[in-house]
Predict the 3D structure of the following.
Amino acid sequence: MSSIQKWLIFSFSMLALAAVYLGLKMTEGFLGLLEIEDPLRSIFPLADIVGLVCGAVTFVVLYKHPKANDFGLEVIKEVKKVTWPSFIETRASTIVVLVMVAIMSVILGLFDWVWATLTNLIYS
């Protein structure tokens, strides 16, 4: 099994886990909304069963669907071509963003203070 195929299975597994969580929470929400007591709560909760079924179905459908496989393989091949920034470039970009956020916060705070002072003068 190639590394690309392993990444594809990993990504499908992560989507299946998301489907498990979504199915579990939706079932809990529906049962709570309809005020239905879960008869299997002591053995194995119904929400867990529905969540696991949703996850399994999601994984099998994605794994067996040719378009999903082709799309996933293309995405993985393209991501491998990406040139990722170095640690120094990432740190420099982060510092630039933080400084710009601080400057814009000060400017917006000053505008807010000026407009608040003007409106208080006008209305009082």
In short: The two ends are 75 Å apart (CA to CA). The chain has two domains: 1-82, 84-124.
